[in-house]
Amino acid sequence: MSKLVKLSTKPTLHGTGLVALDIVISANPDEPIYQWAGGTCGNVLTILSYLGWNSFPVSRLKIDEPSSQVVQRDMKKWKVRLDYTDMEPSASVPVITQEISIGKSGLPKHKFHWRNCPKCGSYLPNYSPVTLKATQQVKEQVKASDLYFFDRVSPGALDLARHFKSLGAIVFFEPSAKGNPKHFEEAIKLADIVKYSDQRFSSVITDGIKKHRPILEIQTLGENGLRYRTKKQVTWAELPAFETEDVKDTCGCGDWTTAGIIDSLCRDGRTALMKHGAEHLKQGLRYGQALGAWNCSFEGARSGMYAVTKPAFKKEITSILDESTQKTRTMSTKAKFENVSDGLCPACPHN
């Protein structure tokens, strides 16, 4: 297949939404408990930094809180820019515990704990959106960006969307939670790309899409792949999912797909996005799907970044795109176990 051309210039994106502390409990009892930066926004921006972007999350992480320090340290490891991660008023980072187990079918499944720690019962902090006062500070300082990503609707998130759109940046909206219907409609109106789950958000998105068609609309269909259409082409085109072997967890695959789509289709800016032909769009979406398929062979949303070397990652993605047999995996020499915890949340008693 033809290869996607990557620019040498490092593109920049800003984003706001769910940045969380992910606590991952393996289906293998011999594996330790891992703590990584997570959440939809946190994952997408960290993955894009890994892929060569300048990533600037906008969030309210308390700099003196242990959970926030884990998140910031982890993002910094992948060269995510932390300039706007501690906007005032600061708030506790959301904590999400993911338990992975093997179902009766022999396939992995996962369960999330959002409200209370399954071990000690402590309350788990919830998401706090950035305020308009904080976004005003960002707008005063940031006068250029290639892309703005958001996954939660709020006055602050929409304020930033309007700002970055005025700068000519691509606006990418991927809802990870339902919110105010009026905010939702405005988010769709501002977005150049809308990506959403058919099962979770189709009914919410439909009315807004009828009024405001984005440049690219992507509807994910789980194991059946995805379908997409453009502002010019209203008929859906479908792309099946890649066949995957050794599936260990599907968490985070959508975030990898999103990052791959952005990396493939958005590096040249909004004008180029509007000019992409049908084949280029298809290749960009397939690249995103390949990243999502690759992630299925690891537990947790981003653990493959720690376990596999960068050259091995690139080779494996090429193999998936070519639908050929994957070569022997080269594991990273960097310690995967640096973010290990003996508790399930920051309040758990440690041994």
General description of the model:
The protein is α/β, with parallel strands linked by helices and 351 residues long. It has a domain at 11-103: 3-Layer(aba) Sandwich (UDP-N-acetylmuramoyl-L-alanine:D-glutamate ligase). 35% of the residues lie in helices and 18% in strands. The chain is built from eleven helices and 13 strands. It has helices spanning 40-50, 66-77, 132-141, 155-166, 181-190, 198-211, 253-265, 270-275, 278-295, 304-307, 310-321, and strands spanning 12-16, 20-25, 33-38, 54-58, 95-102, 108-113, 147-150, 170-173, 193-197, 216-220, 226-230, 237-239, 340-341. The strands form two sheets. Strands 4-1-7-8-9-10-11-12 form an eight-stranded mixed beta sheet, sandwiched between helices. Helix 1 packs across helix 7 and helix 4 runs parallel beside helix 5. It is globular. It starts with 11 loop residues before the first strand and ends in a 10-residue tail after the last strand.
